[in-house]
Amino acid sequence: MSKQHRTALLVIDIQDAFLEPTFHIWGPSRSNPDFEVNAASLINSYRHLVAKSESAIHKIIHVRHASKSSTSPLWPAASGFKFQVFATPKEEELVITKNVNSAFIGTNLEEVLKVHFGGAPGTLFIIGLSTDHCVSTSTRMAGNLGVCDAPDGEKGEVVLVGDATAAWAKGVGEEFLDAETLHKAHIQSLQNEFATIRGTEDVRRAWEKWVADS
Fold first, then answer.
1. pLDDT computed for residue 2 by the predictor
2. Domain range for residue 142?
3. What are the two backbone dihedrals, phi and then psi, of residue 210, each rounded to the nearest 5 degrees?
4. Is 118 exposed, middle or buried (0-12, 13-18, 19+ CB in 10 A)?
5. Domain annotation covers residue 2
6. Closest among 212, 214, 175 to 55, alpha carbons compared
7. For residues 29 and 183, is the Cβ–Cβ distance under 8 A?
8. Whole-number Å distance between alpha carbons of 53 and 103
9. Would the pTM of this model clear 0.90, i.e. be above it?
């Protein structure tokens, strides 16, 4: 993949509702304590890549969840609907609002990506919350819809940055799954069939090399 290869970074649901003290709503504990650091590092690195690009070949897209329930912390009028500070979009960055787990249902995201990739195979990087819900669903649909592929069938690539997402523990009694197990299971289920799994440092170094080579 060269620095001239068109890419997009999809940042999913990094909103205040997922901060404490609302953890108990999602589960008693969360996986990946490095999520915030990794996600912030990637957003900042990708913004640098966008700024250094001579043409608009790299695009950052923020997705936020707007619950249809007025009691949800993700209800549009609730304080939790806001983006977390480190993931707040800049004025020129696209924001897409969804109402279900998939970022592709009820939105124009598929069209946006296909227009951005311009008929050539591209690479979509995905980070955000949460691993087993909106991240997993959106990653699967990105692969199934072929949003990174060229019209002639040449394949692009969906890349899920596995350590830049997180999940909450779920279940009861003997069926209870701790957060790390749940997180890893969903990451592994997406590997190869729906996405390539890469790590924050690997992805960030690639982006920084593109900038250095420009």
1. 53
2. 7-213
3. -60, -45
4. exposed
5. no
6. 214
7. no
8. 26
9. yes
